[in-house]
Automatic annotation (TrEMBL):
<feature type="binding site">
    <location>
        <position position="79"/>
    </location>
    <ligand>
        <name>Mg(2+)</name>
    </ligand>
</feature>
<feature type="binding site">
    <location>
        <position position="99"/>
    </location>
    <ligand>
        <name>Mg(2+)</name>
    </ligand>
</feature>
<dbReference type="Pfam" id="PF00459">
    <property type="entry name" value="Inositol_P"/>
</dbReference>
<keyword id="KW-0460">Magnesium</keyword>
<dbReference type="GO" id="GO:0006020">
    <property type="term" value="P:inositol metabolic process"/>
</dbReference>
<dbReference type="GO" id="GO:0008934">
    <property type="term" value="F:inositol monophosphate 1-phosphatase activity"/>
</dbReference>
<dbReference type="GO" id="GO:0046872">
    <property type="term" value="F:metal ion binding"/>
</dbReference>
<protein>
    <recommendedName>
        <fullName>Inositol monophosphatase</fullName>
    </recommendedName>
</protein>
<feature type="binding site">
    <location>
        <position position="96"/>
    </location>
    <ligand>
        <name>Mg(2+)</name>
    </ligand>
</feature>
<feature type="binding site">
    <location>
        <position position="229"/>
    </location>
    <ligand>
        <name>Mg(2+)</name>
    </ligand>
</feature>
<keyword id="KW-0479">Metal-binding</keyword>
<dbReference type="GO" id="GO:0007165">
    <property type="term" value="P:signal transduction"/>
</dbReference>
<dbReference type="InterPro" id="IPR000760">
    <property type="entry name" value="Inositol_monophosphatase-like"/>
</dbReference>
<feature type="binding site">
    <location>
        <position position="98"/>
    </location>
    <ligand>
        <name>Mg(2+)</name>
    </ligand>
</feature>
C-alpha cells in the first residue's frame, strides 16, 4: 500500500526529522545508562500488564519534548502514555521510548528508540500500512537507521544498498511455547547447514538487522509484538529490500495493540523457508501477509 503522502520532499523531510529525534532520544538514554535510580518500576501498562521503569517514562517525555521542539505536534502514541494529542498537525507519531528495557536495566548494550510517523487519513484510524517514515536509533554508538516510503533506507546519512548474496547464517527468533519452537526447528531442518539462533532482546533492532541482510531472517510467532514495537522497523526492513510479513497489517496506530506474528527474510530463499516451516507446523503461511 502506498503512503498517503504524495510529496517525496515531504517524506524526506519527515525522515530527517524523525531520525534527528530518535538520535537525540538515544543519546539521552546513553547518557543515563547504569543509573540505578532510573530503573525502578513506576507503572504497569494497561494494554499488556508489562511494567514500565522510570527511564521508560522519562525517555517518552523527552521524545514528546523533542517533537514539540521540531514543530511536529499532531497525535502521539507511546508505550507509556498511550494516545496523546500534542496539537492539530495531520500526523500521528508512534514511539517505543526504549525497546530492550530489560537489556538496558541489565547493562546489556543492545536496545533502541523506535519512532514512526504516519499521516492521518480521513474517515478511519491510521493503520500500520499508513506509516510513511521512521527511524530506529540504537542506544549504543551506531548510526541511526531511518527510512521514507519509496525513498529507501538509510544508515546515518547514507542510503543503504544491501548485497542480498550474503549468507550470514544467523536466525533471530522469538518463541515461548513448544508449538512455536517447532517452527524454528523446522526452519533449521529445511535450511540444512548450520545456523546460529539468537533472541537478542530488542525486536526493532533485530527486525532492522534482518532487513539489512545482517541476519538471514527474523521470526516471531508469539503474537506479542505491538504497533509501538514494529511500526518503524518493519517498514525500514521493507525499504531496505527485505521481504516482510505482519499478521495484522491493518492494526490501528491509535492503540497499543498487538500485530500478531512477524517475519522478515533477507532473501527469497529464506522467505520460502519461513513459509514452508510455518505450514509444515500447522500455522498459516505467509501468503497475503507481506507488506
Amino acid at each position: 500500500m502506498e503512503p498517503l503522502l504524495a510529496s517525496s520532499r515531504e517524506l524526506e523531510d519527515l525522515r530527517r526529522l524523525v531520525a534527528r529525534v530518535a538520535g537525540e532520544a538515544a543519546a539521552y538514554l546513553r547518557d543515563r545508562f547504569g543509573l540505578e535510580e532510573l530503573l525502578s518500576v513506576v507503572s504497569v501498562h494497561e494494554h499488556d500488564s508489562d511494567e514500565g521503569m522510570r527511564i521508560d517514562v522519562e525517555s517518552e517525555r523527552n521524545i514528546i519534548e523533542l517533537l514539540r521542539a521540531e514543530g511536529l505536534q499532531g497525535l502521539f502514541l507511546g508505550e507509556e502514555s498511550g494516545l496523546v494529542k500534542l496539537g492539530d498537525d495531520p500526523y500521528i507519531v508512534v514511539a517505543d521510548p526504549l525497546d530492550g528495557s530489560k537489556n538496558y536495566a541489565g547493562l546489556v548494550p543492545w536496545s533502541a528508540v523506535s519512532i514512526a510517523v504516519a499521516p492521518l487519513p480521513k474517515g478511519r484510524d491510521p493503520w500500520l500500512t499508513d506509516v510513511a517514515a521512521g527511524a530506529v536509533a540504537p542506544v549504543f554508538p551506531w548510526p541511526v537507521l531511518s527510512f521514507a516510503r519509496g525513498l529507501g533506507a538509510y544508515e546515518g546519512g547514507a542510503r543503504v544498498t544491501v548485497e542480498r548474496g550474503r549468507k550470514p547464517r544467523l536466525l533471530l527468533a522469538y518463541v515461548e511455547k513448544p508449538d512455536q519452537a517447532s517452527v524454528v526447528h523446522e526452519y533449521l531442518r529445511l535450511a540444512g547447514g548450520r545456523r546460529s539462533v539468537r533472541a537478542l532482546g530488542s525486536a526493532s533492532l533485530e527486525i532492522a538487522w534482518a532487513g539489512l541482510g545482517r541476519a538471514e531472517a527474523f521470526i516471531d510467532v508469539r503474537g506479542r509484538l505491538r504497533v509501538v514495537d514494529v511500526a518503524a522497523a518493519v517498514w525500514l526492513a521493507r525499504e531496505a529490500g527485505a521481504r516482510v510479513a505482519v499478521e495484522r497489517r491493518s492494526a490501528s496506530l491509535t492503540r497499543v495493540e498487538r500485530v500478531g506474528s512477524v517475519a522478515v527474510a533477507s532473501t527469497e530463499e529464506a522467505w520460502r523457508r519461513i513459509d514452508a516451516a510455518l505450514r509444515n507446523c500447522g500455522h498459516p503461511g505467509l501468503e497475503g501477509l507481506d507488506l
